[in-house]
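User: Structure please.
Assistant: Input sequence and predicted structure:
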Amino acid sequence: MRAGPSFIVVWFVIGAVAAGQRHDYSHFDASCAKTTTIVLTILSGPLNYAGINPQVSCRMPQPSK
């Protein structure tokens, strides 16, 4: 039963390392696309090394005038 939480932590650490290797953290501008790309890279963990390359583009509605 104790292996589950450890597995999840290791999964996320591997994802965070993958995001760092892809330079997702450099020049972070807190935009929707950049933030969700980083989150998806971390969540996909070791799958990043199997060829998955999550990238997201966000379209936000323009404020009314």
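Residues 3-50 form one domain.
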